[in-house]
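Hi R.,

As promised on Friday, here is the backbone we talked about, encoded as structure tokens. Could you run it through your design pipeline when you get a chance and send me back a sequence?
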């Protein structure tokens, strides 16, 4: 085993428990906490983040905290999107759409996503909501930045809300 691998393994064993406990406290889910810590170590291993010797413990905890906050924000976005898409009865559809079943409304929305949004935005929205892929997975799969993934989802959802004129309760 080369020196870099030994140092990495030693760091993993010495800091994992502390990092996991923080992630578990923030997320309240064992698997998500493990994934968050693993994401930080993966970024460290592939060079996405650089660790300084003098502040490694606090830096790793900060990285885990930030990853957890990103996960929590993602959960919030999911909940918001699910609420918007699941409350079809609160949508104020123009006359031809009123009285349609939820399945019909979903079909109309899917048709709009596929026919009126850009191909890239449509693909990203399907990957995120249908395939339940994370922003990071989409970014990696399509070779685009996380901010580009976010931009496509935000713009797509904005167009959906404008088109389907969501009533505020």
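Update: got your reply. Pasting your designed sequence below so it's all in one thread:
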């Amino acid at each position: 085993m080369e020196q870099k691998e030994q140092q990495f393994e030693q760091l993993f064993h010495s800091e994992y428990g502390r990092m996991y406990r923080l992630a578990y406290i923030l997320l309240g889910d064992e698997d998500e906490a493990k994934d968050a810590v693993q994401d930080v170590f993966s970024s460290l291993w592939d060079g996405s983040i650089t660790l300084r010797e003098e502040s490694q413990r606090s830096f790793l905890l900060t990285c885990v905290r930030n990853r957890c906050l990103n996960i929590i924000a993602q959960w919030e976005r999911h909940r918001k999107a699910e609420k918007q898409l699941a409350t079809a009865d609160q949508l104020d559809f123009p006359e031809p759409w009123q009285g349609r079943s939820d399945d019909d409304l979903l079909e109309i929305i899917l048709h709009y996503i596929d026919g009126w949004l850009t191909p890239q935005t449509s693909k990203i929205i399907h990957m995120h909501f249908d395939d339940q892929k994370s922003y990071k997975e989409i970014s990696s799969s399509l070779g685009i930045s996380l901010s580009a993934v976010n931009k496509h989802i935000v713009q797509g959802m904005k167009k959906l809300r404008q088109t389907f004129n969501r009533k505020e309760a």
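One thing I noticed while checking it: The helical segments are 3-27, 30-46, 56-86, 102-116, 119-130, 135-142, 146-164.

Thanks again,
M.
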